[in-house]
Design brief:
The complex is a heterotrimer of chains A (222), B (798) and C (351). By secondary structure, chain A is an alpha/beta fold. Chain A has one domain: P-loop containing nucleotide triphosphate hydrolases (Rossmann fold), CATH 3.40.50.300. Chain A has helices at residues 47-54, 77-87, 103-113, 119-128, 144-156, 174-191, 202-205; strands at residues 9-18, 21-31, 36-41, 62-67, 70-71, 88-91, 162-166, 194-198, 210-215, 218-220. Chain A is globular and about 45 Å long. The mean pLDDT of chain A is 87. The longest helix of chain B is centred in the middle third of the chain and has 52 residues, at 427-478. Mean pLDDT of chain B is 81; it is low at 355-364. The relative contact order of chain B is 0.11. Chain B is an alpha+beta fold and 798 residues long. Chain B is 61% helix and 12% strand. In chain B, a hairpin with a 5-residue loop joins strand 14 (575-576) and strand 15 (582-588). Chain B has 25 helices and 18 strands. With 351 residues, chain C is mainly beta. Chain C has one domain (41-347): AttH-like domain (AttH-like fold, Beta Barrel), CATH 2.40.370.10. Helix content of chain C is 3%, strand content 54%. In chain C, strand 18 (282-291) and strand 19 (294-304) form a beta hairpin. Chain C is globular and about 55 Å long. Classes of the chains: A alpha/beta (222), B alpha+beta (798), C mainly beta (351). Chains in contact: A-B, B-C. At the A-B interface, helix 2 and helix 3 of A face helix 1, helix 9 and helix 10 of B.
Chain lengths: 222, 798, 351
């Protein structure tokens, strides 16, 4: 299904600055299907920005983002939205659940928008993430770990090719964070998706197959 | 996808039904008040049109005598014999105590097709219509009113204006005692080969009548209603704006999440618009129903006002017009989109990646506040300019609008400036003041609404109060005779007057005698008075030459009412076309009468209008003798009880008419204030949630929730009080504009302005109560808020 | 709408409302009823009879322009009483309806006026004789002899006017039994006499201009209070002028079963008459024409074997429709067959 010659995600010479402040300065990075990659760096090193650019949430000042060979910089807002909806699963540090939807609806949200909702599959991953009994609850009634599991289920439910996770355990205590990350990695492996995860923790980064380190807007090879 | 986006966004309302209710309530109220007023106006205008269309008067020209008196029957016959198709109408008013009926006697045999309205269609028994005692056609509503005695059988029919009846000319001639036609209707299709009608007669040709005459008189009243409706609509939109702003603000994070998960911005905006449209339509429908109920319940009062003030007959019943409902819905949609446009633009411009943190949605920057202040200054200048140099009703209303909007726009800057002047003594007080200042932009819309409602209330009640004060004083002077008597007929009255003249206890008999005529091209009444101190000693004149009553008494002068005087821009000494022309020697106030009026000596009147004879007269008598005299008149002279009225009753009736006049204004006033209180409540609710981040630190450093709640309540009250303080001068300015500009343009009289501080106190209390009620919910919530929620503020802060 | 009601009012007088103005009032309600062996006194009887429910002055004229073009003129004043009373104010229960028509070979004009008596807008006086409604007049212009011997006639509509001088060249004639004319087998009757011998000169004002005309005319006078029989639907009335100077009146009252009640008066050139009751004359429609949305027999065969008459009539204009509140056909005709001549035809009750 994926042309193995072509990386799934290909970031080339990415530069990004906010006003006159440069954040990224010529970053090139490729990620193949099924690979997991940790993006580490100091606070302010630009790792979240890089992730946002990879998701098409923002536009690079220079350079290009190719997803499966397609330059998403050439797409308009609707085109990029479609890519995110159909091919990318996003996991945020802040969970970003919809407060007015219950757990079940939050989990199904992206899959339904992408028209890729599979009830059995969704039930399976919800079960694996321990959400089966929480379906009728609302986000405000959940603990942080539970909320992040909902966010992971939401990202995985449409079977995306690429998962982009921004400090998914950053709001969780160490123990909960480990459990959540373990589940995430298991499920990523089972679905064959690629994962790019931003983290500031070298300990967590080790658990992924690759790690790249950002420093002052540039890639430092590990 | 769109469906998912819509249902996700809409799920917000499931979690916050109160907010949805507020939004819908705002929309429904705005729609209701506006559409209610529109319905009333449309109904009244329809009634004027229908009245004008009676007997095809809106299409048919008429022939009448130059002075408006009946024309000799022989003139009519001469025209018919010359071949002209003209049709006679005998019209007049039947009075019997308080019962009145305008009678239109027509000749169906000659009436042009256009004069044959629906009233005469159908299964009318023509033989009964034509032959004595005849048949009289009127609407259900007219038939339910008190009617004069001695009417023939009544046939109910649609299409006859209220207060009027149509009958055969023979029946009308008999009932009115007038066999000469009042005027002739001209058939638009005249026969072959005749000279133009104008060459064949000395009668005056009057073009078809439109509803204009009565519409012109009532314009000011409807403009008043419209202005109130618009004000209510604007206040309602404040609520809507606040509710929509709150909902959008609270859904910022959801919108961002949706977009991050792959919903295009266009879909989000579409979903929001569709949602808003649906809500607006449902609320609009509720509002239309509510508006109909409001209008239907106000309609009898409006009809009473129009009848009392202008003599315009309007049914007290409201018809339901689908077109009206549709246009009301359209207005709701328009209003909702105006209220939502800021929120939608905000959503469209919202960057995808900004931190998902609530931001005070209406945080007006200093720049915006400065702009508003500038605009306010400009509007105030316009208002002042119009007040000084403008003329005409429209200018007066534009002046009003500029004054109100200008003061509303000035409010945030004034408040901020005022708060800046406060020098708090301790840190907590400093925080309170600073926090209040920060809240002003968010609350300013609601406070503006409150300001408008309070100012309108002060202005209108000052006007009504001033009017009432002047009016009662004027009544005391004008209604000075002890007894008012109506004879059963003109002859009866002459006999009665002659008899009573010789009674020892009677000081004077003052016949009440008038003639209808046209002065300066419009209908007017001329009254004739005898020379008596009742007039010369007690009657207030607004301006007069030296010793005007002597000139009236010897028939060499005329008094005109203020309406005529102002309308025609007359001056003392100008000649009025009564008889061979008389100079104006004085001007008197004549409240409640939209038409021109003049007073001459009795002899002058009877010389000029030989047909005028009194049916009513007044008796000056020692007040102690009044009951005995009234009893005598009823028993000895057999007058019906209603025909003998004492001074007290006359005054009571006049005041009743007066109260009617401002009934509707008062009702709308209260409703507007209610809506403003709601707007305040909505805004406070909106702010309550957004303000947690500001309150949490204060709480964290050791201020109890109770204390915070008290501060919240106190702040609301202080803001309401401040708003009231601003509303007072605005309201008084409004009252001045109403009294000195609008009244003069609309009614033709100017009233001295009076102040009613007790009313202000009442209103102040009302404003505080409204603010308390509005603040109660948010305050209680704050007092009871779970500490965890306050703590959450820190957890969520990055 | 009003017109329809007025018509209904007038027609209420006859219980079978298809009978039009031939409806002769009921016997009741205090109205006088025609009696046998009438004794007319003139000029009084030329004037109105307010004690009777309905009455008319009905003039038809067959005219010719200088260029030989044929014209027909009608002038009628109906009087209809709501009560057998009169007064001199608005309350007078005597209503008047005027009809005027002009027929040309290719056009027909009609006009109508309504008025109540009592105020001077309409009415009839016997001496001097004058019948009027608005500016329409029929005025006697002679002071000696019968008032009907010389008449001045005017009328005006939206698109026509006329002004005619009439002078009688023979005596009044009386229909039925000395003017008592029976209208049905049940005995309903009216008083009925005519002046059939007018010669006419005058002018017609038409949209195309003024036309000087000459010709002949026929005046009918009839009054009654009784309705026609309930089953009578309408009538067909002929006035005929033969080339030898004799005249004839014939009418047939149609009933719902399609049977006829006929009556005729033969008038010799000197004015002597002979009346024929039901059955002497046979009327047969020859041609039906669509007029004003209905079928009307505009050409007839008239058989009168007793006098050897077998003629076929042809209308000057088949569309001679009186578009009045109560509408009917009224127009000039010519006839051929055993005899030739001209005349007038009136047909009512065709729905």
């Amino acid at each position: 299904m994926i042309d193995s010659d072509l990386p799934l995600l290909n970031l080339r010479d990415i530069c990004k600055s906010y006003g006159s402040t440069p954040v990224l300065n010529g970053v090139s990075l490729a990620l193949n299907g099924g690979q997991t990659l940790a993006l580490t760096g100091e606070s302010g090193s630009g790792k979240s920005t890089l992730l946002h650019l990879a998701a098409g949430l923002d536009q690079p000042s220079d350079g290009s983002v190719h997803l499966d060979g397609e330059d998403i910089g050439r797409l308009d807002d609707a085109g990029r939205a479609q890519i995110r909806r159909d091919r990318i699963g996003l996991i945020f540090q802040q969970f970003n659940l919809v407060p007015s939807l219950n757990v079940a609806a939050n989990v199904a949200l992206q899959a339904q928008m992408a028209n890729r909702f599979d009830a059995a599959f969704t039930a399976e991953i919800s079960d694996r993430l321990g959400l089966s009994d929480l379906g009728a609850r609302y986000p405000e009634q959940l603990s942080g770990g539970q909320q992040q599991r909902v966010a992971i289920a939401r990202a995985l439910a449409p079977r995306p090719e690429l998962i982009l996770a921004d400090e998914p355990t950053g709001n969780l205590d160490e123990e909960t964070g480990d459990i959540v990350l373990t589940l995430l990695l298991e499920l990523v492996a089972e679905t064959g998706a690629a994962l790019m995860m931003v983290t500031h923790s070298p300990r967590l980064a080790q658990r992924l197959s690759r790690e790249v380190h950002l420093s002052r807007g540039q890639l430092a090879v590990q | 996808m769109l469906y998912t986006a819509i249902s996700t966004l809409f799920s917000h309302w499931h979690r916050r039904p109160g907010q949805l209710a507020m939004l819908m309530l705002g929309l429904a109220l705005a729609t209701a008040l506006w559409s209610g007023v529109q319905a009333i106006n449309a109904e009244a205008r329809g009634a004027y049109d229908r009245a004008a269309a009676t007997l095809g008067q809106d299409q048919l020209a008429r022939l009448e005598t130059p002075d408006g008196r009946p024309l000799p029957l022989t003139d009519y016959i001469a025209l018919r014999r010359a071949g002209y198709l003209v049709s006679p109408v005998v019209s007049g008013e039947l009075r019997d105590g308080e019962a009145r009926l305008r009678l239109l006697g027509i000749d169906p045999l000659t009436a042009p097709a256009a004069a044959q309205g629906p009233a005469l269609d159908g299964d009318l028994d023509l033989a009964r219509f034509f032959t004595a005692p005849g048949l009289i056609l009127m609407s259900d509503e007219t038939a339910e009113r008190p009617l004069p005695d001695g009417l023939p059988d009544i046939a109910l029919t649609d299409g006859v204006p209220p207060g009027a009846a149509i009958t055969d000319i023979s029946t009308a001639a008999h009932l009115l005692g007038q066999s000469d036609p009042s005027y002739l209707l001209i058939d638009p299709n005249q026969p072959f080969g005749l000279a133009p009608l104008a060459e064949a007669t000395d009668l005056v040709l009057r073009p078809p009548e439109t509803a204009n005459d009565i519409a012109r008189l009532t314009d000011s009243f409807h403009l008043n209603l419209t202005a109130f409706g618009l004000l209510s609509f604007a206040v309602g939109l404040f609520i809507v704006h606040a509710a929509i702003g709150l909902a959008f603000e609270q859904r910022r994070a959801t919108v961002r999440t949706l977009r991050a998960l792959g919903t295009p911005l266009r879909s989000v905006l579409t979903a929001l618009s569709l949602e808003l449209t649906a809500i607006a339509l449902v609320s609009g429908a509720v509002g239309v129903m509510l508006g109909y109920v409001i209008a239907a319940s106000l309609m009898p009062g409006v009809a009473g006002t129009l009848r009392g003030l202008y003599g315009a007959e309007v049914e007290g019943v409201l018809r339901f017009d689908p077109l009206w409902a549709a246009s009301a819905l359209a207005i709701t949609l328009l209003g909702a989109s105006i209220a939502a446009i800021q929120a939608l633009i905000g959503t469209a411009r919202m960057p995808l990646l900004a931190p998902a943190m609530p931001r005070a949605w209406a945080q007006a920057s200093g720049r915006i506040m400065r702009l508003q202040a500038l605009a306010a200054l400009g509007l105030m200048c316009i208002a002042a300019g119009l007040a000084l140099f403008g003329s005409g009703l429209i200018a007066a209303f534009v002046c009003l609008a500029a004054l109100l909007i200008g003061s509303a726009l000035a409010l945030p800057a004034l408040f901020t400036g005022f708060l800046g002047l406060i020098r708090p003594r301790n840190a907590f007080a400093e925080w309170v003041v600073a926090d209040t200042r920060q809240q002003v932009p968010g609350l300013s819309l609601a406070l503006m609404a409150l300001l408008l409602a309070l100012a309108a209330n002060i202005g209108v009640s000052t006007m009504v109060g001033s009017f009432r004060h002047t009016f009662t004083g004027w009544l005391d002077q004008r209604i000075s005779s002890e007894l008012y008597v109506t004879g059963r007929s003109v002859d009866d009255t002459s006999t009665l007057m002659a008899t009573l003249e010789n009674e020892p206890e009677v000081d004077a008999i003052l016949p009440i005698i008038s003639a209808e005529t046209r002065l300066y091209g419009l209908p007017a009444d001329v009254f004739g008075i005898v020379d008596h101190p009742t007039y010369s000693a007690a009657w207030p004149l607004l301006s007069a030459v030296d010793n005007p009553w002597a000139q009236i008494a010897n028939g060499t002068g005329v008094l005109v009412n203020e309406q005529l005087y102002r309308r025609e821009g007359l001056a003392l000494g100008d000649i009025v076309a009564i008889g061979s022309g008389l100079p104006i020697v004085g001007v008197y106030s004549d409240y409640g009468n939209p038409n021109g009026q003049a007073i001459v000596s009795l002899n002058r009147l009877t010389d000029t209008f030989p047909n005028a004879r009194p049916i009513r007269f007044a008796i000056r008598i020692n007040p102690a003798d009044v009951p005995a005299m009234a009893t005598r008149l009823r028993e000895e002279f057999g007058l019906p009880p209603d025909n003998v009225i004492n001074q007290v009753e006359v005054k009571r009736f006049s005041l009743q008419v007066f109260e009617q006049t401002f009934l509707v204004t008062g009702a709308l006033n209260v409703l507007t204030l209610g809506v403003a209180a709601l707007a305040l409540l909505t805004s406070l609710l909106t702010l309550a949630n957004l303000r947690l981040p500001q309150l949490a630190p204060v709480w964290a450093i050791g201020t109890s929730r109770n204390r915070l709640a008290w501060v919240e309540m106190g702040r609301s009250l202080a803001l309401a009080a401040l708003t009231f303080a601003l509303a007072l001068p605005v309201g008084l300015a409004l009252a001045w504009v109403l009294l000195a500009l609008v009244n003069v343009e609309a009614f033709g009289w100017r009233l001295p302005m009076r102040l009613f501080p007790t009313d202000w106190l009442m209103l102040f209390a009302l404003a505080l109560i409204a603010a308390t009620l509005a603040a109660l919910g948010p305050t209680l919530r704050l007092a009871r808020i779970a500490p965890a929620r306050l703590a959450q503020v820190f957890a969520q802060e990055r | 709408m009003m017109m329809r009601l007025i018509f209904a009012l007038l027609m209420m007088l006859s219980q079978a409302n298809a009978q039009g103005f031939a409806g002769l009032g009921t016997a009741a309600d205090g109205f006088a009823v025609p009696e046998r062996n009438p004794a007319f006194t003139f000029p009084d009887d030329h004037g109105p009879h307010p004690a009777y429910r309905i009455e008319w002055w009905y003039l038809t004229a067959t005219l010719e322009g200088a260029d030989g073009r044929d014209y027909g003129v009608q002038w009628t004043l109906f009087r209809s009483a709501l009560a057998p009373e009169t007064s001199r104010d608005w309350t007078a229960p005597q209503l008047f309806m005027g009809h005027a028509g002009v027929t040309t070979p290719d056009a027909h004009f009609s006009a109508e006026r309504l008025a109540r008596g009592g105020i001077g807008q309409a009415g009839v006086t016997a001496h001097p004789f004058m019948a009027r409604i608005d500016d329409w007049q029929m005025i006697s212009t002679t002071t000696d002899g019968d008032a009907y011997d010389a008449l001045h006639l005017t009328a005006r509509g939206a698109d026509f006017a006329y002004d005619l001088a009439l002078s009688a060249e023979g005596p009044l004639i009386f229909h039925g039994e000395s003017g008592y004319s029976v209208k049905s087998a049940e005995g309903q009757a009216s008083y009925y006499y005519s002046q059939p011998f007018y010669s006419v000169a005058g002018t017609l004002d038409l949209p195309e201009g003024r036309v000087a005309v000459t010709g002949t005319a026929w005046l009918d006078r009839e009054w009654s209070s009784q309705p026609l029989s309930a089953n009578q639907r309408g009538w067909d009335w002929f006035s005929l002028q033969f080339e030898d100077g004799s005249r004839m009146m014939a009418f047939g009252l149609r009933d719902t079963a399609g049977d006829w009640f006929t009556s005729a008066t033969w008038i010799a050139p000197d004015g002597t008459t002979e009346s024929y009751g039901d059955g002497y004359v046979t009327l047969t429609p020859r041609t039906w024409t669509e007029v004003a949305g209905r079928e009307v027999p505009t050409a007839w065969r008239l058989s009168f074997p007793e006098r050897g008459i077998e003629i076929e009539t042809i209308p000057l204009n088949p569309q001679a429709w009186m578009n009045t509140s109560f509408a009917y056909w009224e127009g000039p005709i010519t006839f051929t067959g055993s005899h030739t001549g001209r005349g007038y035809l009136e047909m009512t009750g065709y729905e």
